[in-house]
């Protein structure tokens, strides 16, 4: 099985603890990229990729900020090597964005009326029984 992409610089201490999980997520990413997309809308083919990208970033975020299981050096190494998305993690640290699914959902330029994505609307504000899916990443509600 191929390794997670890294620079020539050796990883910091503790890398061997998180490497198996990251390799597993990288393998899932490769499968999602090569998965056939016949019969799907153009945007639906990208949803699994967004989901796995979110999982990798959330894994690193939880290890560092919630469980405090990895060192700052290893955390910064993961950000520097683009294993985790530093911009998404920066948003997770802000109030109201703790469960944000992707950065495209808060960009107002991607919507018709210059607002956030529909998945950012709280479930209590929507009609009863209405299932909402984000067109960007397939999220069903990340506002809480």
UniProtKB/TrEMBL annotation:
Transmembrane stretches, start-end? none
Name the GO terms of the biological process aspect.
mRNA splicing, via spliceosome
**Pfam families named among the record's database cross-references:** BUD31 (PF01125)
Q: Which GO terms describe its cellular component?
A: spliceosomal complex
Q: Where in the cell is it found?
A: Nucleus
- Database matches in InterPro entries: BUD31, BUD31/G10-rel_CS
Main location per UniProt?
Answer: nucleus
Q: What is this protein called?
A: Protein BUD31 homolog
PANTHER family, A to Z? PROTEIN BUD31 HOMOLOG, PROTEIN BUD31-RELATED
Write the record's keywords in alphabetical order, separated by commas.
Answer: Nucleus
Organism of origin? Zootermopsis nevadensis (Dampwood termite)
